Amino acid sequence: MIEWIGATVAVFYSLWAVALALLFAARLQIPMDRLSVRATLILPATGHLPGLEDLLTALTVQSLPPFRMIIVVESREDPAYERVAAIAGRYPQLNITLVVAGLSPLRSQKCTNLLAALAQLEADDAYIVLLDADIRPQPWWLSSLVAPLAAGRADLVNGYRWPVPAILSPGTVLAAAIDRAVAVLPRVTQSRPIWGGSLAVTRHAIEILDLPSTIGRTLTEDLPIGDRAAESGLRVLTRRTIRPLTPLDSSIRDLWRFGRRQYQLIRLYRRGLWRFAAFVVTTDLLARIALLSAMAASGLALAAILTVAALGSIAAEVRIAIGSKLDAADRMSFRLAQHLLVWAILPVPVFHASMIWGGFVTSPVVWRHIHYVVDRTGRVIEVSRRPYSDQQV
C-alpha cells in the first residue's frame, strides 16, 4: 500500500514538473518591442557589489536605453557608496545619480532605500523600474518590462530570475535546480505575484500604491506591493520573457541562508503560499523516501524510482532549452551535473524542504549585515546592525 501511495505521489509531481516546463517553453517568445519612452531605473545597493560593472554594462546595451538611473545606498560608510561613486562616471549614458538614504529602525534597509529613491523622482520620470543588483539582464529586458505599460495593457509588469551557476559546485547545482523549477511555474493571479528584482510601474500606479504606507514597516517591498496592487485593482502582468540571468557563485551554506530567508518572507506575507510549498515539497520527499526504502523488495517501487528519475531528466533538459533561449546556455559540465542530481533522487527535495521548514521560524531575519525582529504580521519592531564585513547573502 505504501509503495502505491509513494509511486502515485512521486510520479504525479514529476509529471507535473515536466508539463509545467513544456508549457513554459512552448509559450516563451523573445519580444521585439521597439520603444522610445523614458524609463527611470532604481537600484537599491549595499556591500562590495562585485558584479556591478557587469550589470551596468548590460544596461548600456538595452534595446530601450534607460533615461536615467538612481542608485541608492544606506550610508557613506556602506562599501557600495565608494564603489558606485568610483565607477558611475564610466557609464555616462546611464545618467547615474547616487543617493544616500540614511538608516531606519522601522523597516528593511531595502525598503528605506527605495523610498529615498522615489523621493528623487521628477516630473518626466514616466515609467519606474526597480531592479536587484545581482541580475544580468538581456538586451530585451527593459523594453519587455516597459512595453505593456506604454501600451496601456498593465499598471505593473514583472518577471522572475533565471539562475546561472558561475561556478560548478553542489550548492549552485542544487540552487539552480530548485529556482529554475520555480521560474517556470505559472503566476496565478490569486497569489498576487510580484518580484521586486525586475518590476516596472507607471507613475500613476506609484501614486496609487502609496509606498510610504505600503512598505513603511515591512521587511520586503514586493509582496506588500502585490497585496496593495490587488486591493487597488491595479493590473499586474508577469511576463515569461523577463527572466534576467542571475549568477550563482556562493557556498552551499550561503545559498541555503538565502533560500531560507525567502521562505521566511513568504511565510510572513503569503502564509497560504508557504503552506502549499511546504505540502508539495514535503509529500514529494516522503514519497521518494518510501519508494527507496521499499525498492529492494518491490518491483513497483523500483519502477517508480526509475520513472521519477527519467522524468526529472526530461524536465531538466526542457529547462536547459529554456535557458538557451534566454541567452543562458549551460556548459556541458553543469548539464551533466543536473542529470546526476535528479538521478540521485533525494538531494533536491531534501535541500528544498530544509529551506522551507527553516523559514517556519520567521524572526529574526538576517539580511546582509542587518538582523530584523518582526511580529507575526511582518511589521519590523527591532533592527540591529553588524559591521559591513559581516554581510551574508
Care to describe what's here?
This protein is α/β, with parallel strands linked by helices. It folds into two domains: 2-25 and 277-365, no CATH class; 28-264, Spore Coat Polysaccharide Biosynthesis Protein SpsA, Chain A (Alpha-Beta Complex). The chain has helices at residues 2-27, 52-60, 79-87, 109-118, 141-150, 170-183, 203-209, 211-214, 222-232, 252-269, 271-294, 299-325, 332-343, 347-358; strands at residues 39-44, 68-73, 96-100, 127-131, 156-158, 162-165, 198-202, 236-238, 245-248, 365-367, 370-374, 380-385. The strands form three sheets. A seven-stranded mixed beta sheet has the order 3-2-1-4-7-5-8, with helices on both faces. The protein has a three-stranded antiparallel beta sheet with strand order 10-11-12, with no helix packed on it. Strands 6-9 form a two-stranded parallel sheet. Strand 2 (68-73), helix 3 and strand 3 (96-100) form a beta-alpha-beta unit. It is globular and about 70 Å long. 43% of the residues are buried. The model has no long low-confidence stretch (mean pLDDT 94).
Give me a quick take on this structure:
49% of the residues lie in helices and 14% in strands. The protein is an alpha/beta fold and 393 residues long. The protein folds into two domains: 2-25 and 277-365, no CATH class; 28-264, Spore Coat Polysaccharide Biosynthesis Protein SpsA, Chain A.
Category by helix and strand content: alpha/beta
Order of helices and strands: HEHEHEHEHEEHEHHHEEHHHHHEEE
Give me the CATH architecture of the largest domain, please. Alpha-Beta Complex
In CATH terms, the superfamily of the largest domain is: Spore Coat Polysaccharide Biosynthesis Protein SpsA, Chain A
Number of strands: 12
Q: Please tally the helical runs, counting DSSP H or I stretches of 4 or more residues.
A: 14
| Rg, Å, rounded | 21 Å
The main sheet comes to: 7 strands, mixed
CATH class of the largest domain: Alpha Beta
Distance between the termini: 44 Å
